[in-house]
Design brief:
By secondary structure, the protein is α/β, with parallel strands linked by helices. It is built from 22 helices and 16 strands.
């Protein structure tokens, strides 16, 4: 055969298949399917049998092929057949294959000529075939028979379309010579899906049955009703030949004699017949293989490159060498240590873009999760005020206190500080979990040695658990230290001095000097003012009991903004004055001072009224003095707890880093190897897993197979030639099936 023939292409492709089969992979050359399309009794099945060289398809009149037969030809050393619906059963007698096709067809479609789009999958293994997929489709019919539905023609067309619309499907449009070619349904369907004629080959059968004095010479010469790929004439066995068990080889010899002896076909005998059809298909397949090879070669080269380094390591590998085991144990522990440090400390190389590393997650715990737990711990406001109120009353006991007690402040603060223990211990637990997760992730690289991996995880995890109790003890000690001394002298603590600043007393009479600026000091108990900010000469001290604040309209002549303090019991606030008018340079300063007074328990007039109503409904004491003390302590507790929280948020990461993370890193660097040596037999630790042994063998076999495959691809490239596509022809004579309908 031409193009170095199938006898040359088959061994090369078989070698490629064998190279991949040895490593359990498929050689994905994506060879085209060949669909045989034609009317009933056009000789489609005979054309298929000629490819296989065996009689195995059902025969008869009318519609014989009633389900698509997907025939996979697979090159093998022996010859047998298998059905997908009979897994494991091998058919060596091809008469049994025919009977199974008929039985399976009847099982789905019934015995009365019904059809079904469900395909029958048949594999034929033979040393005489190339790996192809051939599809025998039901013949196109016009008139329903038996229990066939009225739309049988449309159903068969739709079924055929499912296969021939694929770009990789080569269409054999089979038409008997004793029918009108211009009305060939097979060619019309092919024209619909392949208007350029790139994958359609016309096959003319039954040339020996034409009326005497007629021939198909002009059609076969592609002069009358031309196709781009032309026509090939074949002479199949007659029903008499089939019944007489005429051998296919003998039939092909008779076909050759027919073309050589017929006066109309003698000059083109070499371009006719089944061998020519096989050669044309072979050319198509060879072209496809050659087109596929560049991408296929690139893929194989990429796989080979990826395996080169690993295969080189395995090539001189001796699993039972003691010196290798010792060296590898050292390398594994060092790699584990490096991986752990990179995951905790961060690294610029091999950055994970899929998930956060252990170090990044711990950072999030320190600066997001832990602060969130502290905020979440904040108590109920009403409950806090109730507790402060009870603390003040219980400290005073039967007596009436004149001043806000320090002991109430300390009692409430300590109660709040104790609540910090929960979030702190939870923070340690979260960090420990991330450390253990990081250890497991790093030990994944030890999976080739299960005992080493298990022992490494056990030793490091035990050390982490041992450090856990120490870290928690130290963290709780930090809280106990905070409880041991309440430092009200801290620079950030507002203390009992709430605010200092310059204010102008606006309602001093002109006789006494008029409006004058003084240095004011607001504490939790009093509101005092001095001559200057050295606070040596005190002018007056105003107790805060029964005081409240209200706004004063700005004077037309004054640029100052004014608010005043007055007594709720209508007493004089300052000397003969019922109110103390205080002036600031801006409205912002007024609001700021009012806010400070509010923290000291001096309410604006309206808020005070509402507060009385609210506290009455909550069964609080309506004593304004007590309310002011509660407000004072509440503000002091907030101020002090802000200091404590800030301190704990700063110290917790430092304590955990020192006691846990750095300690574990040092342990892995300095102690892990010694602990592994003392744990037992080092040779047993380095025994590779069965999976690793299989992996090593697989890598070496795959590497060798890839090298062989690349050599074979080179042989295919150099031993085959590309057959150019025939030039376009005017095939407008074929009226598309869709247009006709």
């Amino acid at each position: 055969m031409g193009n170095r023939g199938m006898e040359d292409l088959i061994p090369l492709v078989n070698k490629l298949q064998d190279a991949f089969s040895s490593i359990g992979q498929a050689c994905n050359l994506d060879l085209p399917q060949i669909a045989v399309v034609g009317g009933q009794s056009a000789g489609k099945s005979s054309v298929l049998e000629n490819f296989v060289g065996r009689d195995f398809l059902p025969r008869g009149s009318g519609i014989v092929t009633r389900r698509p037969l997907v025939l996979q030809l697979i090159s093998a050393t022996a010859e047998w057949a298998e059905f997908l619906h009979c897994k494991g059963k091998k058919f060596t007698d091809f008469d049994e294959v025919r009977q199974e096709i008929e039985g399976e067809t009847d099982r789905v479609t019934g015995a009365n000529k019904g059809i079904s789009p469900v395909p029958i999958n048949l594999r034929v293994y033979s040393p005489h075939v190339l790996n192809l997929t051939l599809i025998d489709l039901p013949g196109i019919t016009k008139v329903p028979v038996g229990d066939q539905p009225a739309d049988i023609e449309q159903q068969i067309r739709d079924m055929i379309m499912q296969f021939i619309t694929r770009e990789s499907c080569l269409i054999l449009a089979v038409t008997p010579a004793n029918c009108d070619l211009a009305n060939s349904d097979a060619l019309k369907l092919a024209k619909d899906v392949d208007p350029q004629g790139l994958r359609t080959i016309g096959v003319i059968t039954k040339l020996d049955l034409m009326d005497e004095g007629t021939d198909a010479r002009e059609i076969l010469e592609n002069k009358l009703l031309p196709l781009r790929r032309g026509y090939i004439g074949v002479v199949n066995r007659s029903q008499k030949d089939i019944d007489g068990k005429k051998d296919i080889k003998a039939a092909m010899e008779a076909e050759r004699k027919f073309f050589l002896s017929h006066s109309s076909y003698r000059h083109m005998a070499e371009k006719m017949g089944t061998p020519r059809l096989q050669r044309v298909l072979n050319e198509q397949l060879t072209n496809h293989i050659r087109d596929t090879l560049p991408a296929f070669r690139s893929k194989l080269q990429s796989q080979l490159l990826a395996l080169d380094k690993e295969a080189e390591e395995y090539r001189g590998y001796r699993p039972d060498d003691p010196s290798r085991k010792t060296k590898q144990l050292l390398q594994m522990v060092q790699q584990f240590s490096v991986d752990f440090e990179k995951r905790i400390e961060g690294s610029g190389d091999q950055v994970d873009t899929v998930e956060l590393s252990g170090g990044a997650k711990i950072n999030r715990i320190f600066h997001e999760r832990f602060p969130f737990e502290l905020v979440k711990m904040e108590c109920d406001e009403k409950e806090m005020r109730r507790e402060i109120s009870y603390a003040i009353k219980n400290i005073h006991g039967i007596r009436t206190g004149l001043f806000t007690p320090d002991m109430a402040f300390e009692a409430i603060v300590k109660k709040q500080v104790v609540k910090l223990k929960g979030p702190c211990v939870k923070c340690v637990d979260m960090v420990i979990q991330e450390l253990i997760n990081t250890v497991r992730q790093c030990s994944n690289k030890l999976e080739s040695f299960p005992m080493l991996r298990e022992e490494t995880e056990r030793i490091v995890t035990c050390h982490i658990r041992d450090r856990e109790s120490r870290a928690k003890d130290q963290v709780l000690l930090l809280i106990d230290i905070q409880l041991s001394y309440i430092n009200t002298n801290h620079e950030d603590f507002i203390g009992f001095v709430i605010r200092k600043g310059w204010l102008t007393i606006n309602n001093i009479s002109i006789m006494k000097g008029g409006a004058k600026e003084y240095w004011f000091v607001l504490t939790a108990e009093s509101f005092s003012w001095f001559k200057d900010d050295e606070e040596k000469e005190k002018k007056y001290m105003l107790p805060l009991d029964n005081l409240k604040v209200r706004d004063v309209e700005k004077s037309f002549m004054s640029s100052k903004h004014i608010f005043c303090i007055f007594n709720t019991e209508s007493r004089n606030v300052y000397k003969d004055n019922r109110t103390l008018e205080l002036a600031c340079d801006s409205q912002e300063d007024v609001e700021s001072w009012k806010s400070s007074l509010l923290r000291a328990g001096v309410y604006p007039e309206k808020v005070f009224v509402e507060s009385e109503t609210t506290t009455a409904t909550e069964n609080f004491s309506m004593d304004p003095q007590l309310e002011r003390k509660v407000e004072t302590i509440r503000n002091l507790v907030d101020s002090y707890m802000a200091i404590v929280n800030k301190c704990i948020r700063d110290l917790m990461p430092k304590a955990i880093m020192h006691l846990m993370i750095n300690n574990v890193k040092d342990f892995i660097n300095a102690e892990l190897l010694a602990q592994l040596y003392s744990a037992g037999d080092q040779n047993a630790l380095m025994d590779e897993s069965q999976e690793q042994a299989q992996r090593r063998d697989e890598v070496l076999r795959t590497h060798q197979a890839l090298k062989e495959a690349l050599v074979i691809i080179g042989d295919i490239s150099t031993s085959t030639i590309t057959v150019p596509m025939p030039p376009p022809v005017d095939s407008s004579w074929v009226e598309g099936a869709g247009g006709r309908r």
